Structure formats: C-alpha cells, structure tokens
Amino acid sequence: MTEFAGGLTCLWLGMVLAISFLEAPLKFRAPGVTVPIGLGIGRLVFRALNGAEVVLAVLVAAAIAVADVRWPVYLCSGITALVLIVQLAVVRPPLNRRSERVLAGEDAPRSRAHLAYIVLEVVKVLALLTLAGLLLAAAD
C-alpha cells in the first residue's frame, strides 16, 4: 500500500509543480492574455487542481491508514493536509474576492493573500517531496 500512496503523492506533487509553478506564471506572458483573462483561466485551473488535490489527499490518507508506516509519514501527510486546508479555507476566499473585483472591472491592489498562497505552495511541495520519498523508501 505504501507504493500506491507514494505513486499518488508523486502524481500530486507533479500536478502542483506543473500548475502552480509553471502554468500560473506563464499564462500572463502569452500574447493577448490580459489580467482579467488570466485571472479567469487561473480560477478555473486552480479550482480543478484543488478538487483533484482533495481527492488525492483522501486517497493518500486512506492508503497510509492501512499501511505499516512510521511516524514521519504521518507527520508529513498531516502537514500536507493542513497546508491544503489552510489554502482552501483561509487563503483562497480573499483571493477569490479580489479576482471577482478585478473581473468586474475594478482596479484592485495586489493581495497579500497571493504571497501567502505561494509560500504555502512551497511548503506543500517540500512536504509532498518528503512524503513521497518516505513512502517509496518504505516500499523497498
């Protein structure tokens, strides 16, 4: 079961890296993409990513619950889940409110919540990387 959880964790890590650190910043550099268009695309993409993350988090937790693992696996999975919960429940709502204002035509200032989301993404990537390593090492 640790192989399954490790594979799911690697999939989750790849999705976060591809979307948050590649797609998100690059879309605003594409010709013709305005801030409102980029925000509209970003909202759709991150809503889909976060939904997939919730499913992956549940699957990883279920696989870990039935596997024979040591406490660092529980710690890393807990940190990862906590970061995701904070992103979804605390940070995303102000980001959504700001993007709604921009999409409505308002010139809203840059949100500090955006920086918090990025910091949490970095923490989540480090936790996922560590979790994947622990799970795959336990599978040997």
Automatic annotation (TrEMBL):
Q: Where are the bilayer-spanning segments? A: 6-24, 44-65, 71-91, 115-139
Instruction: Classify the source by domain of life.
Output: Bacteria
Q: Which UniProt keywords apply?
A: Membrane, Transmembrane, Transmembrane helix
Name of the protein: Transmembrane protein
Native organism: Amycolatopsis viridis
